[in-house]
Amino acid sequence: MYSPMDIEGVEYLIKPMNCPFHVQIYKSKNRSYKELPIRYCELGTVYRFEPSGTLHGLTRVRGFTQDDSHIFCQPEQLQEEILGVLDLSFEMLTSFGFKKWEVDLSVRDPQNKEKYMGGEEIWKKAEESLEKALKKRAVKYRRAEGEAVFYGPKIDIKLLDALNRAWQCTTIQVDFNFPEKFDLNFVGKNGQKQRVVMVHRTILGAMERFIGVLIEQCAGAFPVWLSPVQAAIIPITDKQIKYGQEVKKELEKQDIRVELDDRSETTSYKIRDAQLQKVPYMLVVGEKEVKAKKVAVRLRTGKDLGPMTLNQFLGRIKKEIEDKK
């Protein structure tokens, strides 16, 4: 997976992870306990030489971008940092509309400890810190022996899609070994150097995989806050295009992503097309709507909500966006 790639006779070693680079940033100067915790985060692109037979759409690729973060903290701050990441993970996943997941506590293989870095004491401390956080948040989990990476245990959150397939996305990993190997320290209150603790984390994981799972989960019908186009304005005839432009301008002032469908097509065709595009709202404007200064609101499900003033519609859609629905 991390072996050199031969591309047209030239050997390349491509970045497989972001961790060493964040380590170098941390080591770029002396650190005090007053600075900790330090949290670095980037949308970092990495590469893995996956066998061709395992590649699968967006969910298994050789080059991917992940929301990668590394937290450097004092040992006594570790529990609070794990809880913070755990809370953020569930907040993010529920915001995207996911309601089902499986949680694994991935620990060492007790029968094969020699394949892991570090001693018994630091592994025990790392595993206990993750387990304590899961119990404190009353999260149901499975203890997955042998699933830890060689330098530390982790919490794995696997999303279940519409077909109940599990996809690895969120990872929260405690690492005492990288700080030891790369000599990562901070100056404590007593003026002495002390070892820092690292927490590796991704919330959405590989962005390509997450997007693939999200599309499957939503069947393309993204929640309003996430939809590329949140509302489509559909004039019944050319006579209402000017009013449609006024509506579009007002919605754009409120940061609503909106399009005006002024094509020379029938109203039913344009409504059907917007439904196929999974646009959450269709605002139909005819002669009556122009006179009343209203819009006839329809949902992508086909439900007709009837006429509304622009302020009434804005109140509805902005609340859905705010509530992440």
Offer a quick outline of the entry.
The protein has helices spanning 19-26, 78-95, 120-136, 177-181, 207-218, 241-253, 267-276, 287-292, 310-322; strands at 5-7, 10-12, 38-47, 63-73, 101-107, 142-145, 154-160, 166-175, 185-187, 193-195, 197-206, 231-235, 258-260, 281-285, 294-299, 304-309.
Any overview of this molecule?
- It is a single chain.
- The protein is an alpha+beta fold.
- It folds into two domains: 5-218, 2-Layer Sandwich (BirA Bifunctional Protein, domain 2), CATH 3.30.930.10; 224-322, Anticodon-binding domain (Rossmann fold, 3-Layer(aba) Sandwich), CATH 3.40.50.
- Helix content is 31%, strand content 30%.
- It contains nine helices and 16 strands.
- It has helices spanning 19-26, 78-95, 120-136, 177-181, 207-218, 241-253, 267-276, 287-292, 310-322, and strands spanning 5-7, 10-12, 38-47, 63-73, 101-107, 142-145, 154-160, 166-175, 185-187, 193-195, 197-206, 231-235, 258-260, 281-285, 294-299, 304-309.
- A seven-stranded mixed sheet has the order 3-4-11-8-7-5-6. A five-stranded mixed sheet has the order 13-12-14-15-16, sandwiched between helices.
- Strand 1 (5-7) and strand 2 form a beta hairpin.
- Helix 2 packs across helix 3 (120-136).
- The radius of gyration is 26 Å and the shape is elongated.
- The two termini are 39 Å apart.
- The mean pLDDT is 90.
